[in-house]
Write a structure and sequence with these properties.
Layout: H1 17-32, H2 34-59, H3 63-88, E1 91-95, H4 100-133, H5 140-149, H6 163-170, H7 177-207, H8 210-216, E2 221-225, H9 229-239, H10 248-263, H11 266-271, H12 277-303, H13 312-323, H14 328-342, H15 350-373, H16 383-394, H17 402-426
Antiparallel strand pairs: 1-2
Length: 428
């Protein structure tokens, strides 16, 4: 979803506070005041978002900037919403349960698939089968590693894989350029996380009662219903590459979702426990996130160089750190633009893009890996994360709360792997 070009704005840093407040609410309210949050999260999200909107409208007189962000938000919701509907019309029936080895293969396959249909598409397609395969011993572990591998890290090899890379493609980075250069880091991260998951899941498997272990080692059968939805999925993914005329991409995605919903038998939706609850929750929360993050991104873009961000390793960690708490697509574009400016180049000039990739390609790789990989650090780092949690919550399985996800999984498991990637590939 391309960002609208605007003159650089210099918002007062105090207006970053609503974003921090919304992040704190998302993290703490479901734990401290669950009933209040369940009934009022829409008001909290829109209330805090309205502070940033009012400031840009009446304080900075930057209505055009808000229109651009509003269009980005609309395109974002159309994209993940259409994939949510289409994936909900595909039901995978299985008999038996997944062993740790089969689980590891499933996640590794999901990481590959993410590059073909996007992290959002792969997440929406695979999360329900993932829950069913592990229905007798589904734990917080299974939620976290699914988000790590399928919803984020897996999708760093193509512009289809994750929205940040698609923005780079729209700016002129060749389609396969990122594939060849990110493949070693992708292989290391996916291999390490899959291995760690296998070891932890094996402990979980061995702790399960014997009847469950015997059921899990039984012969599995596979039956897929709703395969016609693959055609609607292809329409939605093909629409991603349409740049003109404006709005056609979103119209085709909406038509794909409507077509899928109207042509899918209700028993398939019933088998998937499908409802629009998860997408509604994500839409309301991201409305506030998109609004409140505008001052943070604009302030960063204008002051990045003053913060001493000059080397690829700096861009890897800084783009990653913010991608964990801000939507990673605009974060990617902010740091990529800053990297171009560092070399006195302009990201909207095709000749400058070619020169930058030829002479300073490591900066683009650092921002790409940081934005995609670190999107898994929190639930709000990437759109599919919150969708996966919402779907799992609606199906009544175990998911870690916001802080548990960070303290129990992101910091002790994911962060060391990402630190190793940064050290091996960007420290000279």
């Amino acid at each position: 979803m391309p960002l609208t070009a605007e003159l650089l704005l210099d918002p007062h840093p105090a207006f970053i506070v609503p974003f921090a407040a919304l992040l704190l609410c998302i993290a703490t309210m479901p734990l401290l005041l669950p009933k209040f949050w369940e009934h009022h999260y829409r008001k909290v999200s829109l209330g805090l978002g309205s502070v940033a909107v009012a400031y840009y409208l009446f304080g900075l007189r930057a209505g055009g900037r808000l229109l651009g962000v509003g269009w980005e938000y609309f395109s974002f919701i159309v994209f993940i919403g259409s994939l949510f509907v289409v994936a909900g019309g595909i039901h995978v029936r299985t008999r038996g349960e997944a062993t740790p080895f089969r689980n590891a293969v499933f996640l590794a396959g999901g990481a590959v698939l993410a590059n073909l249909i996007g992290t959002t598409g792969a997440s929406m397609l695979l999360i329900r089968p993932w829950i069913r395969l592990n229905k007798y011993r589904f734990t917080q572990l299974h939620t976290a590693f699914f988000i790590f591998l399928v919803s984020n890290v897996g999708g760093c090899l193509t512009p289809i894989g994750d929205p940040p890379l698609f923005l780079g493609y729209l700016k002129g980075i060749p389609f396969w350029w990122i594939t060849a250069r990110c493949l070693p880091a992708w292989g290391l991260a996916v291999g390490a996380l899959t291995t760690i998951f296998y070891a932890l899941d094996r402990l979980n498997f061995l702790a399960a009662p014997r009847p469950i272990r015997e059921e899990q080692t039984a012969h599995e059968t596979l039956q897929i219903e709703g395969l016609h939805n693959l055609g609607w999925l292809a329409l939605i993914l093909g629409a991603v590459f349409l740049k003109h005329p404006a709005g056609l991409r979103d119209v085709l995605m909406v038509l794909g979702a409507i077509g899928s919903y109207r042509t899918t038998a209700q028993p398939i939706y019933d088998a998937n426990h499908f409802s629009f609850g998860p997408i509604k929750e994500v839409a309301w929360l991201f409305a506030g996130i998109f609004a409140t993050m505008v001052p943070a991104l604009d302030y960063l873009e204008l002051h990045a160089s003053a913060l001493g961000i000059t080397a690829p390793i700096h861009f890897y960690w800084c783009s990653g750190a913010l991608s964990g708490v801000l939507d990673n697509a605009p974060t990617y574009l902010t740091f990529l633009t800053a990297a171009f400016g560092l070399k006195s180049l302009h990201i909207d000039d095709p000749a400058h893009v070619a020169s930058f990739l030829d002479r300073n390609g490591s900066y683009a790789i650092a921002v790409s890996l940081g934005s995609v990989f670190f999107g898994a650090m929190t639930y709000i780092g990437n759109g599919p994360n919150l969708m996966v949690k919402a779907i799992a919550d609606h199906q009544g399985v175990h998911t870690p709360h916001f802080f548990r996800y960070i303290i129990g999984f992101s910091l002790p498991v994911l962060l060391p792997v990402l630190a190793l990637v940064g050290w091996l590939f960007f420290v000279k």
